[in-house]
Amino acid sequence: MPEQNAGSTAETPPRRATTFDDLPLHPRLRRGVKEMGYLEPTDIQRDTIPAAVGGRDLIGTAQTGTGKTAAFLLPLLERLLGGPRGRIRALVVTPTRELALQAQEFLKVLGRHADLRSIAVYGGVGMIDQERALRGGVEIVVATPGRLLDHMRRGYVDFRELQVLVLDEADRMLDMGFLPDVRRILASLPRRRQTLLFSATMPKEVIQLAREFLTDPKTVQVGETTAAAVGVSHLALPVPAHRKSDLLKALLEDATMTSVLVFTRTKHRADRVARQLSDGRIDVGVIHGNRSQSQRVTALTKFREGRHRVLVATDLAARGIDVEGVSHVVNYDLPEVPEAYIHRVGRTARASRRGDAFSLVSPDEENDLRAIERHLNVTIPRARLPGFDYDRAAPPAPAGGRREPRSRPTGRGRSYPPRGGGYRRR
User: Fold this and answer.
1) What is the DSSP string of 196-215?
2) CATH of the domain at 54
3) 391 vs 91, residue with greater confidence
4) Alpha helical stretches, state H, 194-337
5) Tally of structural domains, the chain
6) Is residue 403 over pLDDT 70?
7) Among 222, 257, 276, which residue terminates a domain?
């Protein structure tokens, strides 16, 4: 390695933050960080907060459960400190009600000592209270696209003083068909603003959106965006479609499955699976788009507090469930796209913990499983549950009714091995 001359002015790389005290955050925000229970910043927080505090447009990509929410809320709060009050100066756009409420809860703690007001704006509830808050002068709005546009059409929102825009879970918003709404919102915002875009995956549609609406963004990617969260142990359990519910009940006889998130593809199947588990005396909640906001909040609260051992959900909720201590994720149905598998299993093994992801794979889902394996570039172990009767015939369909529907005719999907014994590999 060549020696430097004594008079060299070579730039020394900045020292990497090891604590939140090393980050450019006001002491009032550091108090909120401590009250949140954070001990040290995650990689995505270390690598994005300094640039974002400096006003740089930014694209942050990291796996689910790595602390992206605090990575954009802390610099947002830092930039708004000391500025005018009573005007909307920051907007966070997120795809689901659950994510909007999650960001709002983070703001309440992280920004507790910042004297900044915020409101979560989402559908499924009345508009009057949201309208009052918007007219009353909040500094931060966290919103889902559809409800935000409703308020904008009614003239309740004034973005003339907006300084910071955050697009949270941008890939999911585009996957859910929100791109036209997002374009309408962005077209109504001041051109001179900071834009932060965060996502767990980076499909070409997100890259195109970034090119259109960000200016010379700094790009931060932590880990592989095609990989599931570190610490997740995956396993595929092949099973006839009509035996899935019974296999799920048999799995739940394992006492180590203390906090279980079960994903189905449709709202109807979520309701049916929850009903079958409840009939088996298992404490279960259900969350999907047809549930009212109060029902969704109640189910999520009971699951978070341990009063529900199982929560059955559709992919709509995959990004909005921020619950510590989820021991297992069960894919009752494999998802439509491999990226959705990453988000589902990311609900466990959060904050460097470990967790298990089981996938119940019917014969018509084998192609889905192979697609997920190709996407993640791994082979997921298959296993059979000892003592389970895989060969029991399907019961006759009731008159005028149908048997258990096939999981899906075509698609993709995927999964890996559990900790401990109990399952026999093929």
Assistant:
1) EEEESS--HHHHHHHHHH-S
2) 3.40.50.300
3) 91
4) 204-213, 244-251, 267-279, 293-304
5) 2
6) no
7) 222
* Average confidence score pLDDT of the chain: 82
Cβ pair 261, 348 in contact under 8 A: yes
Measured torsion, CA atoms of residues 124, 128, 131, 133, in degrees rounded to the nearest 10? -100
pLDDT digits (tens, 9 = 90+) for 37-68: 888 898 999 999 999 999 999 999 887 667 88
Same domain membership, residue 182 and residue 310: no
Q: What is the mean pLDDT of residues 20-47?
A: 91
Q: What angle do the packed helices 179-187 and 204-213 form, to 10 degrees? A: 10
Look up the domain containing 260 and give its range: 232-425
Decide: 174 and 208 in contact? Cβ < 8 Å: no
Task: Please indicate, yes or no, whether residues 135 and 179 belong to a single structural domain of this protein.
Answer: yes
Whether 57 is in a domain gets the answer: yes
- pLDDT tens digits for 198-210? 987 777 778 888 8
Residues 6+ apart with CB under 8 A from 308: 283, 284, 285, 299, 302
Q: Residue type at 62?
A: A
Distances (CA, A) of 188 to 181, 203, 318: 11, 25, 29
Query: Residue 284 and residue 274: Cα distance in Å, rounded?
Result: 6
Say yes or no: 104 and 27 in one domain. yes
User: Per residue in 145-176, pLDDT tens?
Assistant: 999 999 999 998 999 999 999 999 888 787 66
Closest CA to 319 of 288, 298, 343: 343
State whether 335 and 386 are in the same domain. yes
Query: Is 224's pLDDT higher than 60?
Result: no
Same domain flag for 54 and 141: yes
Q: Residue 92: in which H helix or E strand, if any?
A: strand 90-93
User: Could you tell me the end-to-end alpha-carbon distance of the chain, in angstroms, rounded to an integer?
Assistant: 52
CA distance 193 to 307: 44
Determine the residue type at 318. A
E strands present in 264-402: 284-287, 310-313, 328-331, 355-361, 383-384
Q: Higher model confidence: residue 323 or residue 389?
A: 389
Q: Are residues 265 and 403 in the same domain?
A: yes
Alpha-carbon span 327 to 259, nearest angstrom: 5
DSSP letter (8 states) at residue 395: P
CA pair distance 198, 166, nearest whole angstrom: 8
Is residue 4 in some structural domain?
A: no
Last residue of a domain, which of 200, 222, 244? Answer: 222
Task: Output the furthest CA–CA distance in the chain (Å, rounded).
Answer: 90
Whether residues 209 and 252 fall in one domain: no
CA 322 to chain centre: 7
Distance CA 400, CA 63 (A): 46
